[in-house]
Amino acid sequence: MSITKPTYLILVALLLPSVVAADLTISGLSEDLERNVRAFATIATEPCDADDWLVRRRFRTLESQVRKAIEPFGYYRPEITSKLVLDGECWKAEVAIDPGEPVVLREVDVRIDGPASTDPEFQELLTPASLASGSALRHANYEALKKTLQIRAANRGYFEAEFSASRMDVWPDLGVADVTLHFTSGPRYRLGEIRQNQGFMNPEIVLAYLDLEVGAFYDADDLARAYRDLSDSAYFSQIEILPDVANAEDAQVPMQILLQPGTRIEYTVGVGASTDLGPRFRAGFRNNRVNQRGHRLIADLATSTVLQGLTTEYRIPLKDPRREWFSVTGAYSDEETDTFNNQIERLGVRWTKAMSEVWLRTLSVDANRESFAVGEDVETSRSIVPAITFDQKRSDRDIFPRRGRRLGAELSGTDKSIGSTMSYVQVTAWMRWLHSFGDRTRLLARLNAGFTKSDDFSELPPSVRFFAGGDESVRGFDYESLGPTDADGNVVGGDNLLVASIEYERHLKGNYYGAVFVDAGNAFNNTDFKAEVGAGIGIKWRSPLGPIRLYLGYPVSQSDQSLRVHLRLGADL
Known about the structure:
This protein is mostly beta strands.
């Protein structure tokens, strides 16, 4: 005879004894108080089949445990009634509690003696709102203030700090309590000798990243910042910054810096695709530590159906390596689009400096040789181009931010008097902005603008001319297919550029998002501006590498063109 699965489960249920749960019922308390009472009550842990004598013993201590559970909340005069039922199958207990009025604080004496009494970081602790006279007593607030004083003292370098008095006196019959906290800070220690335990980096480079000065007051925030800066440098795999309090003398604490070298040589390989450049392959090489002075060598090889190129950079940290560096760059690229062909050989120098927490300024000089064909213009140009660039990025996180912006501008140019085959001045500016509305929607906007003044436009290579169209320009149009044309209808680019975009994005499901967008703009000469408009829809996948976007763009302003697919992997800002 076979037994079906439902029948089997029924038989098992009939054979097993019925489960009757033990029950402790608590009434009259708020959720927080009830939770604390249940945690204190040992009877609540006894199973249903516990011996009666054990349950009675637990029950006899229940009222005292209730009192201990609610006293930390200021309730010292409760009225408690309890009942225990043993019916043979399982015990059940009931406890009804009227906590009464909480004890209130009468006198609160918080005092800081020593140098910390004038330290601004301690002033707010002298009159804590949580322990104000007349407020309900909470033991947790008292303990939290003690802990805060100790932690803040340690973080600020008061290594000898201690309580000369710490007392909480409660008079339940009067319904009042007094708090006394006297904190003696002792001296505030200063930074002593900084000792480095490493032999692979110039000690001066490490000190520049630390930004710690011997004789300055000890501050844990400064140490945390130094740790982050050392970590961001990519020179080190393990970092420890430790105050040697045991060997402190004359209120100066030596600092021990323990460092292990990070990965020196890194290789990267990647493949991708976009509709602008087609299938892409990239290989990178990075030497993070060419020598003990922290020099770096970076090389990147990229190839696609449209663009092939090799770029190299030799970077030298300057006085403040976190914020300033000098680099020598070299590059070769060969770009062939439907609009132009261009081969570029470039050698340049750059001085980059952080002007603030978010602004970077770069001064550069590039020597270029370009062989190009645009429309009827076939030339080989030479130029020496000085430039100044400002760039700012602010966001709440690097990958898929909820809000942020990026601003930038560049002024560049050259003249025949310094050995160039052309003369021009060019200004470009860019803006990206995004903002989240709730948890499901984001709004993204961007603006690109450029202006060029030149003696002879036909002498300018494609890298200086402006074009529009493509994944990061006016979607719905081919890559760099928009701009002024020559007499034969060939797109030759323009002196000026203005492109704007607005995109609305909404979360669909999981890591997928939907989007609708409108792009408008063009490259143009003088004031002869005619905006081309593209619009469409898209889907975005929030991948571990960053957002991958797939858009369908339609050229609204030109009805004789078909739908275009745009694919791109890259950051939002």
